[in-house]
Structure formats: structure tokens, C-alpha cells
DNA sequence: AAGGCGTGGTA
DNA sequence: TTACCAAGCCT
């Protein structure tokens, strides 16, 4: 492997021939559309995002359209994507863009990161993919690809660090447009080829330039991130409650929620948490979406 | 700064 | 079946 391997070019060429045709990659997608796709894709497989994203874009083509709705509509339209607080924050972001930015999605990292639910990754993704700026866009896929190809490690660390951003920035072409393409390509490579558990090095454009491949492709020993319990946790019960309220046209009485889980303490804790988070409100006839 | 936060698919 | 994983963010 060569020290100055043109990683960006190799991956970008591969991307040109192998990219999935995701709807938000189509020409003419607005910055708002890109932002929504990025938030929906946080911790959620892209396959499940597609239909929901299409519905949202048709229904709320600009931030102001969403901002004009009750937050509960965003939560309901979120469906089963998971982590519904993202819907809440996306609605809040829409309110902020409509109110503070003249309904135009900001194009600076600082302004983007100031929006609810927009962090290090999503801010740079929007700046790069929507505004075609040159920024390192580092998600779990990119971290894994860089960890393997450059550092020769089987996996990256648990969270994105400043060092990850610097390492990735180094790989990007100088040209902003080319850098944006390279970032999308690195993500796609991690999603389709350089996967966590079953990488397909035989079809990888970086195989000849990959430090990890050269060392024999030893798979990571433990989990890449902290294993999460789910069954019987508060999160589980919160999800059960939200599923009921999403389907309900009218407020739901407390007794009607008793059937979702057998332990009263956990039920109560879940419900209280949801109300505290603003995902549920208690009104006259019972509990409902805000 | 470690842990909380949904949901469904795959091996 | 259980365990891990999937375009993170917030506190």
C-alpha cells in the first residue's frame, strides 16, 4: 500500500458506480430535505427512512410548513422510526429556522449546531451535502473505514473525537464539491462494503490500500458500542405507550394504558418521563400527543 | 462523560 | 434465541 494512496478518489469512483439511489440524493433536494433525511437516519437504517421522508417532504416542503403544525403531528408522522424525541427536536428546529433564519436552513456549522437535535455529525452533513462545503463528515461508517484503512484497527472508538475529524479532513480533496462527494462515498462504503460484522473486502476499492486488510482483516472482538438492554426497560415501555398514543384519535385514559405493561411502577415511570420530555401531555380526557 | 433514548432486521 | 447493529444527540 502506498503512503499517499488517493483514498478519496478511489472511493469516489467506486461511489459513482455503486451509490444507492436514495431520494434525498436526487438533484433539486432542498437543504431542508437533506436536514430531515439526516435526522431521520440517526441510528436508523436508511431503508426504513425512505417512505417516511417522502411523506414529510410532501406534507412539509419547508421548515415553516412543519413549524405551523402542533408538535404532535410531527411525532405522529414520525411513525415507527424510533427515538421520537428526534421528531420533537426536528419540529423545534423547524420553528427556529422559520423564526430566526427567514425559513432558510443555515449554512454555517455554528448556526446548524445551534439547532435542536443537530450535533457534530449532522451539522457537517448538512453543510457538505446540502451546501456543498468542505467539512469532514464523520459518522460511524466513516470512523470504521478510516480506522481500518488508515490506522489498521478492526474498529473505531465508541464516539467521534476531534482526532477523528482531523484524520478524516486530511483525506478530503481540496475542492469543496469533490470533498462532499468523497464524504458521501466514505459513508456509503462503510454502509455497503466495509461493514461492522461482515466486511466484503473482495469488492472494496481500498483493499490494496487498506492497512487492516494488509494485516489480515481480524474482526473486532467485542461490540463496537455499549450493548443496550431493551426488553423490560423504561425505553421499551415508553415505546409501547407512544405506539398507543400515535394511533389514538382522542385522549387516552390512564387505565387504558395499564395494558401496555404489567409493572405499575415501570409504567408510571415511563409515562412520567414521556410527559417530562414533552412527548406526551395530560389533558382533560387523558394522555395525548402534544 | 457515561448512560439514556425506539425499533426492526440479521446472524 | 439472544446479541448485535443501524447516517447520533443530549445531559
Automatic annotation (TrEMBL):
EC number, UniProt record: 3.2.2.31
InterPro entries xref list: DNA_glycosylase (IPR011257), Endonuclease-III-like_CS2 (IPR004036), Endonuclease3_FeS-loop_motif (IPR003651), HhH-GPD_domain (IPR003265), HhH_base_excis_C (IPR023170), HhH_motif (IPR000445), MIG/MutY (IPR044298)
Catalytic activity from the UniProt record: Hydrolyzes free adenine bases from 7,8-dihydro-8-oxoguanine:adenine mismatched double-stranded DNA, leaving an apurinic site
GO biological process: base-excision repair; mismatch repair
Cofactor list: [4Fe-4S] cluster
Keywords per UniProt: 4Fe-4S, DNA damage, DNA repair, Glycosidase, Hydrolase, Iron, Iron-sulfur, Metal-binding
Keyword Lipid biosynthesis among UniProt keywords: no
Family: Belongs to the Nth/MutY family.
Matches recorded under PANTHER family: ADENINE DNA GLYCOSYLASE (PTHR42944)
Name this protein carries in UniProt: Adenine DNA glycosylase
Organism: Phytomonospora endophytica
